[in-house]
Amino acid sequence: MQSKLPTIGTSIFTVMSQLAVQHKAINLGQGFPDFPMSETLINCVSDAMHAGGNQYAHTYGLPLLRERLAEKINFLYQTAIDPETEITVTPGGTYAIFTAFSTIIQPGDEVIIFEPAYDSYIPNITFNGGVVVPIALEFPNYSIPWDKVSDAITKKTKAILVNTPHNPTGVVMTKEDLLQLQEIVLTNNLYLISDEVYEHLIYDNKQHETAMKYPDLFARSFVCFSFGKTYHCTGWKLGYCVAPAALMKEYRKVHQFNAFSCDTPKQLGIAEYMNNREAYLTLGTMYQEKRDYLRSLLANTQFKYIPSSGSYFESYRYEALSDESDKVFAERLVKDFGIAVIPMSAFYQNATDHKVIRLCFAKKTETLEAAAACLLKV
Ligand code: PMP
Ligand code: GLN
């Protein structure tokens, strides 16, 4: 068979998690919490199943859940979103993003992304017949070089994808970034796909700048979220997309003949549980403590962090310890030291290697301590 994705191999997350299992290593590679999710939310879902909520949900998402989401967006960002026409529940954030690409990309359209980039974007764009235009974030602070973005625009540019807070670097876009982005999107009639799955995981008193807060920008945006990150249940694979009605109308045409609808009991359970605002309002403090604890455990080592202000991740430079490539170094860490991490070059199409690894700190205290004990031996 002729491959539609001839250059795409196995996701680095799968590779490193498999190696972690094989070598019985501590896994700070793939991003997922290793502490339990809320019992109350589990009970809400279980109650929904026992009450008979087991058949197809509405194709755009359970109406009550969409209403709750619109209320939440209004509460957090003072933006009025119509739950009838502007929100679609999806089987995960990745699917929400893929569907946005499928909705807008015509063969040969160019899509600008920033590298290092979360690993699904490039295959998603390619699969939909688009051409990826990667722009490297400035190393080592991973800021967006806006002048290079303007230079990269051609007649074929259709969209820009941004991700804030950013995986893998933890960089959080500022108001100035959003204003620059808005200017470029509007001037060139582009679409924006805004991956905001880590909206609540923000540290150091920073604020999440959602595209939804900028009405002119939002008019051309698909904003994507994941319940997995917010409620510590990455395995549930449930998310949603928010877009203005005209764009959402087209998005829903793609969605209705792909997933059609999403897991009903989980939508019922989350809709019930969402009344508890504390569950997401406390996430920033909780995860910042974990980030800082890992920093303190590694403070007297040769691993030097590059500050993260959001997401589950912080990246660390290891050049004082080894001149191996990050892939070779990561392989050695898992095989010889019992700790799995992600080599940053995996997030670049051309495997740019700055000798940096990504660590996931969404872990129990004892996991972070055990991980640090391994890293101290390197
Ligand atoms: N975007 C980013 C940046 C992510 O880190 C993730 C988490 N894997 C996703 C999207 C996808 O989320 P989900 O697991 O809900 O598909
Ligand atoms: N988002 C997670 C990460 O960046 C992994 C998701 C996945 O395995 N597809 O590590």
- Alpha-beta content class: alpha/beta
The number of E-state strands comes to 13
Distinct small molecules: 4'-deoxy-4'-aminopyridoxal-5'-phosphate, glutamine
What percent of the residues sit in helical stretches (DSSP H or I)?
25-40%
Radius of gyration: 20 Å
Number of helices: 15
- In which order are the strands of the major sheet placed? 2-8-7-6-5-3-4
CATH H level, superfamily name of the largest domain: Type I PLP-dependent aspartate aminotransferase-like (Major domain)
Assigned CATH architecture of the largest domain: 3-Layer(aba) Sandwich
| Sequence of secondary-structure elements | HEHHEHEHEHEHEHEHEHHHHEEHEEEH
Average pLDDT over all residues: 98
Show unreliable segments: none
How many angstroms separate the termini? 45 Å
Q: Beta-sheet strand percentage?
A: 15-25%
Overall structural domain count: 2
Report the top-level CATH class of the largest domain.
Alpha Beta
Biggest pleated sheet: 7 strands, mixed
Shape: globular
CATH fold-level name of the largest domain: Aspartate Aminotransferase, domain 2
Could you please describe the fold and organization of this structure?
It is a single chain. This protein is α/β, with parallel strands linked by helices. It folds into 2 domains: 12-30 and 282-376, Aspartate Aminotransferase, domain 1; 39-278, 3-Layer(aba) Sandwich (Aspartate Aminotransferase, domain 2). The chain contains 15 helices and 13 strands. It has helices spanning 12-22, 39-50, 63-77, 93-104, 121-127, 146-152, 175-187, 215-218, 227-230, 245-256, 264-273, 278-281, 283-297, 326-337, 365-376, and strands spanning 26-27, 87-90, 110-115, 131-136, 157-163, 191-195, 221-226, 239-242, 304-306, 313-317, 339-340, 342-343, 356-360. The strands form 3 sheets. It has a 7-stranded mixed sheet, with helices on both faces. It is globular. The chain binds 4'-deoxy-4'-aminopyridoxal-5'-phosphate and glutamine. 4'-deoxy-4'-aminopyridoxal-5'-phosphate binds next to α4.
